[in-house]
Design a protein that fits this description.
Number of helices: 14
Largest sheet: 11 strands, mixed
Mean pLDDT: 90
Low-confidence stretches: 32-36
Strand content: 15-25%
Helix content: 25-40%
Number of strands: 13
Structural class: alpha/beta
Length: 399
């Protein structure tokens, strides 16, 4: 790849239960305080969003009203990334900024849903009465505003990033695909600057219901990611918005920007997850990254769901036998699991560590997350879906 097409991360926007911005997520965040960010919703532990003044990035109240918390979180984090990259007041560049969003389904009005069910089912109402409730109770502007692809639309409207727009769906693998798409399009000369990321509002009863029907949630008192296997596993949802600006090195240098890190490669796959298959797929993907043996810091997107979390841990143990020394940090322990936004958040955390020249301290005790000592030159990021999809990214320090 031409050196001018190296893929640099030049802007980061993070919003989570840990706080707002880079300082709240950089190495040095207290690994011993995740419980202070935990709240219970329907008896399930979640990581709620920190207090946010959305008006700082979405100044029009009318625009805020037509977005649910999920969209406001994503639009806000996107604004942080653009400002961090020095693009917030650059209409000449924003006109060419492509938007790639990993998005889930929009939020529902649970109160109204319950009312419709009460009227249409519990009281044995006629179809005419049910239709009347739908026609009079739904607000069309809110419903349309919650379509998945309109998160990217609102980012373009609010922040004037008006290049092409793509929305990826498919839970965690959507976040992997968004980052991978930006990387490959820059490397191929199909664009110079991309805004990439996703968002999740974990404080939703309908979202929790859907995941619990699949037995994916962690229903017990809070435990770190690697400590959940004995009770069957599960993830604790975490509200988050995670966006990054990635651009070609030549483009960034022309406007005087320095990078947080370089994305060396992003690879992904999807397996059926039969016995032992997860570790095998990860080894195949890892082989494409050409990582030299030795110390290997890892920002892991492990969710806590079984058996995929154990499969990822087996992969790390195999790496140790092959001459690597993985120092793994599961950021779901600290921030919760943010599904579509989880892999972009991991990439952001890895880039912050490389820029700071130091890695995160272990997020939990117990021996799985080992201390890291030495020069920080590269970080591996993993992103395994709680049900399907596997992805890896390798980030490197830039001199």
């Amino acid at each position: 790849m031409d050196g001018d097409r190296d893929v640099w991360i030049t802007g980061i926007g993070l919003l989570s239960g840990a706080g707002e911005g880079n300082a709240a997520h950089a190495p040095g965040i207290d690994p011993a305080q995740p419980r202070s960010d935990i709240a219970n919703l329907l008896s399930y532990p979640i990581h709620p969003l920190c207090a946010v003044d959305f008006g700082k990035q979405i100044p029009k109240a009318s625009e805020q009203r037509q977005m649910g918390l999920w969209q406001r979180t994503g639009v806000y984090a996107a604004g942080l990334a653009l400002a961090d990259a020095g693009l917030a007041d650059r209409p000449d560049v924003l006109d060419r900024t492509h938007v790639l969003v990993a998005a889930g389904n929009g939020e529902r009005d649970c109160g109204f849903d319950s009312k419709v069910l009460d009227n249409g089912i519990c009281e044995g109402a006629s179809p005419d009465r049910l239709n009347e409730a739908l026609l009079t109770g739904l607000r069309p502007t809110l419903y349309l505003g919650e379509l998945s692809n309109l998160l990217a639309g609102n980012i373009s409207i609010v922040h004037h990033a008006t290049g092409s727009s793509r929305t990826f769906k498919g839970e965690e693998i959507a976040g992997v695909s968004a980052v991978e798409n930006a990387y490959r399009r820059i490397a191929a000369g199909q664009g110079d600057v991309f805004l990439v990321g996703g968002a999740l509002n974990a404080q939703r009863e309908d979202l929790l219901l859907g995941y619990e029907l699949g037995s994916y949630l962690w229903p017990h008192p809070y435990q770190p990611v690697w400590s959940r296997k004995e009770l069957g596993g599960g993830f604790t949802p975490g509200s988050a918005g995670a966006f990054l600006v990635v651009e070609a090195r030549g483009h960034a240098q022309a406007r005087g920007r320095e990078p947080y890190a370089r994305i060396r490669n992003v690879v992904s796959d999807r397996c059926g997850r039969e016995s032992g298959e997860i570790s095998g797929v990860l080894h195949t993907l890892f082989g494409k990254l050409n990582v030299p043996q030795g110390p290997l810091p890892v920002v892991s997107g492990a969710s806590g769901v079984e058996p995929v979390t154990s499969g990822e841990l087996a992969f790390f143990q195999d790496l140790e036998r092959r001459g690597y020394q993985p120092a793994v940090r599961a950021h779901g322990t600290r921030l919760g699991h943010s599904v579509e936004a989880h892999f972009p958040a991991g990439v952001c955390l890895a880039a912050l560590a490389l820029a700071a020249g130091r890695f995160y301290q272990p997020f939990e005790e117990g021996g799985t997350e080992k201390p890291f000592e030495g020069e920080l030159s590269r970080v591996l990021v993993t992103g395994l879906g709680h049900w399907r999809g596997e992805g890896l990214a390798l980030l490197e320090f830039v001199e």
